[in-house]
Structure formats: structure tokens, C-alpha cells
Design goal:
Number of helices of chain B: 11
Number of helices of chain A: 8
Radius of gyration of chain A: 18 Å
CATH architecture of the largest domain in chain A: 3-Layer(aba) Sandwich
Number of strands of chain B: 0
Distance between the termini of chain B: 13 Å
Largest sheet of chain A: 6 strands, mixed
Oligomer: heterodimer
Order of helices and strands of chain B: HHHHHHHHHHH
CATH topology of the largest domain in chain A: Rossmann fold
CATH class of the largest domain in chain B: Mainly Alpha
Structural class of chain B: mainly alpha
Largest sheet of chain B: none
CATH class of the largest domain in chain A: Alpha Beta
């Protein structure tokens, strides 16, 4: 039995806004084991990004607890236990690709030799070797997002938190990056928490799919999804895949009335 | 870029404008200077034809509006024609003005950046300083410039520094405002990113806020250096018109030397143009090194 790395207990989060309180998360209880690839899926407003941001200590819950390897989210953040990938690549436009990857390493105070070796290995990992000296605008959207994944991995975190990383990309690029991410995950054995609103993406990538529903944001259903380690893109045509996709779709439907 | 596009894109439009301005200038000179010639003729009891007036309007000693060639002759005489150490050399006076412009611009930039850094990092400073910074610019510089000179003189500071202080007083403002905006320009996502790295405030400043502010700084420096020049010229007026372009303007107006005024004006304009282009060139160099996509 692999060890639990992320454990959320009865998590609540209410935002105070000018239009009154917004109940973003309600009674979230979720355990994520080491090496798992967990997708959070749901319609917009279901709190999937908020949940990820709570784990990352970018939001403070108003109730309940989160523990990450026995630490609070803040301790985990200070220990740089996770790498965070945003919806956009969020590369600094004035830094070259290698300097962008170097950014967290500079913040950590690593020496130049360590920085260089980590830049090299992580850019190779995302197939961006040879683009070190390019500026972000010289790269396509998909390449920029790969660079931002390399930047997150360069910290050598235990886990990756990804907030709809491929949401802004077209489907062809997205398919390609999904395949690459799966290989990356198999290679690095990191725990991944992945926010998405694409059902095929969630089923293709995950070992566990957390279906969430909005107003208030809560967990509707947790679906296990084990399609085996070797998953070519074609797997999306198989009955097993379609069965899980169907289950996710039913879960989303049950948790959320679209007439609201 | 090849020579042809340079000719077509730069020389042709700019040259056309220059020629048009000179033509309008000549017309205006004839129109404005002609009444004096008519008065002269009337006083002498003679009549004067337009063909006689025309050449005279361009050679008056104290014309209402000197003709372009008079100004350019004066410019030539007082720059190339005089030793630069001479008090009658426009190069000498330009240097006096330039030195206090540059010193004031430097001081203004340092002050503006320092204020912006404080305003961005401390909310108290944002609330307490910003209104004063804005108020400072609503006071007419012509009113406050003599006060600065007098006060600084009273504490034994004279010469370059009081004039530079007036330049600083004008030029810190665009820097402070532009830099504040620039330091606040990073997106929330980039700030979150630094937070996920548990970056300290100073790391966030040096690695994110400051580089993000550089384009804003370059733009506000362009504004600041030209008003620093205005400040230096204004600062020369109450000092008794000893030296500098401002002194030339003041002396020229005392003695009705319009040719001298216009040549000092043109010199000031040329100086401003050179300074702004210089900041522009340095700025685009910096931008290119920082990976800004070429236009």
C-alpha cells in the first residue's frame, strides 16, 4: 500500500465577496497516495482550481485541514515540496528558456553547476533541448507550456500540481502533450494532481478521477481509472476507456444541473 | 534595413515636413515684419512697394519673427564661429544647461525610482506620499524655481546644484508614476509563481518586479529628460541670467534680440531631441537584450 502524501479532511473555504459569501469548497475529504495521477474534473465554479490552490498554499481554507507528507501546506510550500504548473505557461518574457527554468533554482540559491545540470536534464525531459537560448515568444504555445513543466520539475519536487495546463492549447497539441506527460509521469514517478475540464484528458491520464460539482464546490464521486501503464492515444477508442468516460460524464451530469 | 527604405521611410517624410515648416516660417516672417517697414516708410513720408518690402523683412535687426536664414546664421556664428569657452558661444551656454539637465535628470531618476519602490512595498507610503507627489506638480514651476534658488543660496548652495534641483523637481514625477505602474505590472500568476517558490520579497523584487518595470522606466525617462531640460532653462532665469540657454533667452528678451532668442530656442529644441533620442537608443538596446520581440 503506497503512502498517503496529500490528505484533505473536511475542507471548507468561503470567499467573502461584495455580493456576499461564496462557498467555494464544502466538506472536501480526499486522500492521494504517492505516485498517483489524480484528476480533478468538473464544470467551472466547482472549486477544482481552488482545491489545488489550497493544497499549494495559495489560498487559505476557512475550515478543515490539509496535510502534505505530514506538513501543513505552508510548510510544504516553504520546503518546495511541489511544482506548480499554471493555465498559461507564465514564462518571464525577458528571460530565455534556460533562464526561465533557472528562475526557481536561483530563488533556491543553488550553485551555477547544479543549475546548469538541472536545466539540461529537465529541458531534455520535455524535449526542448536546443531551445535554451530562445525567448518565450519564439516558441509555440505547446512548447512554452512544456518549458513551464520543465521549470516546475527543475525544483525536483515530490509532486506536481497542474491547473488546466493544456486548457489554452488546441486539441492536436493537447493530445501530443498528454502522451508526453504520461511518459514523463512514468519516468519520474511523481504524484500528480491535475485540474481539467476535459473528460478524455482526465480518463487518459489518471489513476483516479475526482468528479466535482458546483455551488457549493464539493466532491461528487471518485472514480478509479486504471488502464495500465502503457497507454497509446488509441486507447481512447477501447470499450474500457469509453466505459470510464461514460461513468465520469454520468457523474458530472448527476452533480450538476445545466439548467441552473 | 536597406538604404532605400531608410530614404523612403525617414528622409522623405521628415524632409518634406522640414521644408514645409521653413516655407511657412518665411511667409510668416514677411507677414509679421512688413508692418514695421510700412511704418518706417510712412514716417519718412515715402511709399514703399511690396518688392522693396520683401527683402527688408528678412534682414531686420530686431524682427518680430526672424527669417530662418537669420537664425541659422546666428546659430552658425555662435557655435562654429566662436571659441567654446567664450561667453558668446552658444555651445558654452548649451553645456551649462546640459550639465544641470543631466545632473537633475540623474537625481530625479534616483528619487523617482526610490519613491516608487517605497510606494509599491509599503501601503502607508502609497497613501501618504502619492497625493503629495501629485500636488508637487500642480505648483507652477516658475513660481517655485526662484524660491528653490533663494533657499539653497541662503544655506550656501549655489551654482549647478540649485538648477539641477529644479530639473529634479520636474523630472522625478514621470519616473515615480511610471515606475510605480511598472513595479505593479507583474500578473497575479507571476506573483503566485514566485510564491510557490517561497521567494522572499527582495527576490520577487529583483527577479520579477524590477525587470517587469524596465519598459515603463524607459518610457518615463524619455519624458523626464525633456522636462529636466525645461527645468534647467527655467532655473537659469531667476539666477540673473548669468549663463545657459535660459540666460540667453532672458537677455535676448531684455534687449529685443529676437534672433538670439530664436537661436537659443532652436538650440534647446535640438538638445531636447538629442537627449530623448539618446534615451530611446539606450532603451531599445536594453529592451532587445531583455528579449522584447522586435517590432
Amino acid at each position: 500500500m503506497p503512502e498517503t502524501v496529500i490528505s484533505a479532511q473536511n475542507l471548507d473555504l468561503t470567499f467573502e465577496t461584495n455580493d456576499g459569501p461564496v462557498h467555494a469548497l464544502k466538506d472536501i475529504t480526499l486522500d492521494i497516495a504517492e505516485g498517483e495521477f489524480v484528476s480533478l474534473i468538473g464544470p467551472s465554479g466547482c472549486g477544482k482550481t481552488t482545491l489545488l490552490r489550497v493544497i499549494a498554499d495559495l489560498e487559505q481554507p476557512t475550515g478543515g485541514t490539509v496535510s502534505i507528507n505530514g506538513m501543513t501546506p505552508e510548510q510544504a510550500r516553504l520546503a518546495r515540496a511541489y511544482g506548480y504548473v499554471f493555465q498559461q505557461a507564465a514564462l518571464l518574457p525577458w528571460r530565455t528558456i534556460e533562464d526561465n527554468v533557472a528562475l526557481p533554482l536561483e530563488v533556491m540559491g543553488l550553485d551555477s553547476a547544479t543549475r546548469q545540470s538541472r536545466i539540461k536534464s529537465n529541458l531534455e525531459l520535455v524535449n526542448l533541448a536546443g531551445f535554451e537560448k530562445k525567448f518565450p515568444w519564439q516558441l509555440s504555445g505547446g512548447m512554452q507550456q512544456r518549458a513551464s513543466i520543465a521549470r516546475a520539475l527543475a525544483v525536483e519536487p515530490d509532486m506536481l500540481l497542474m491547473d488546466e495546463p493544456f486548457g489554452a492549447l488546441d486539441e492536436i497539441v493537447r493530445d501530443h502533450l498528454n502522451e508526453q506527460l504520461l511518459k514523463l509521469w512514468a519516468k519520474t514517478k511523481k504524484t500528480v494532481v491535475f485540474v481539467t475540464h476535459s473528460i478524455p484528458e482526465a480518463v487518459f491520464l489518471s489513476t483516479k478521477i475526482v468528479v466535482m460539482s458546483p455551488r457549493p464546490g464539493r466532491i461528487h464521486e471518485i472514480i478509479d481509472c486504471d488502464l495500465g501503464a502503457d497507454r497509446p492515444l488509441d486507447i481512447r477508442e477501447t470499450p474500457e476507456f469509453l466505459k470510464i468516460a461514460h461513468q465520469v460524464r454520468e457523474g458530472l451530469k448527476a452533480g450538476h444541473s445545466y439548467d441552473e | 534595413m536597406n538604404g532605400e527604405t531608410f530614404l523612403k521611410d525617414k528622409v522623405l517624410p521628415i524632409g518634406t515636413m522640414v521644408l514645409a515648416i521653413i516655407a511657412i516660417w518665411y511667409l510668416a516672417a514677411v507677414f509679421l515684419n512688413a508692418p514695421f517697414e510700412r511704418d518706417q516708410a510712412e514716417r519718412a513720408g515715402t511709399t514703399i512697394s511690396f518688392s522693396e518690402i520683401l527683402p527688408r523683412t528678412m534682414a531686420q535687426e530686431r524682427p518680430v519673427l526672424p527669417a530662418p536664414h537669420q537664425v541659422f546664421t546666428e546659430l552658425w556664428d555662435t557655435t562654429v564661429g566662436k571659441s567654446i569657452t567664450s561667453k558668446r558661444s552658444l555651445v558654452y551656454h548649451s553645456w551649462i544647461t546640459l550639465s544641470s539637465t543631466l545632473l537633475g535628470f540623474l537625481m530625479g531618476t534616483v528619487l523617482g525610482v526610490a519613491l516608487a519602490v517605497g510606494i509599491v512595498h509599503f501601503q502607508t507610503l502609497d497613501r501618504s506620499l502619492m497625493p503629495w507627489i501629485i500636488t508637487s506638480q500642480t505648483i507652477p514651476i516658475l513660481a517655485i524655481a526662484p524660491m528653490i534658488i533663494v533657499v539653497l543660496n541662503a544655506v550656501g548652495i549655489s551654482g549647478l546644484l540649485p538648477k539641477a534641483t529644479i530639473s529634479m523637481y520636474l523630472s522625478f514625477f514621470p519616473i515615480a508614476v511610471g515606475m510605480t505602474k511598472g513595479l505593479r505590472s507583474p500578473e497575479v500568476m507571476h506573483l503566485d509563481l514566485m510564491r510557490t517558490y517561497s521567494a522572499s520579497a527582495s527576490q520577487t523584487f529583483w527577479k520579477l518586479r524590477l525587470p517587469a518595470a524596465v519598459p515603463f522606466l524607459v518610457t518615463s525617462m524619455k519624458v523626464a529628460i525633456s522636462i529636466a531640460l525645461v527645468g534647467a532653462i527655467v532655473g537659469e532665469l531667476p539666477t540673473g541670467a548669468v549663463a545657459g540657454l535660459g540666460a540667453r533667452l532672458l537677455a535676448g528678451s531684455y534687449y529685443g534680440q529676437t534672433v538670439q532668442i530664436w537661436s537659443a530656442l532652436l538650440m534647446a529644441a535640438a538638445l531636447a531631441g538629442i537627449l530623448v533620442s539618446l534615451v530611446d537608443v539606450i532603451g531599445s538596446r536594453v529592451n532587445r537584450r531583455m528579449g522584447v520581440k522586435p517590432a
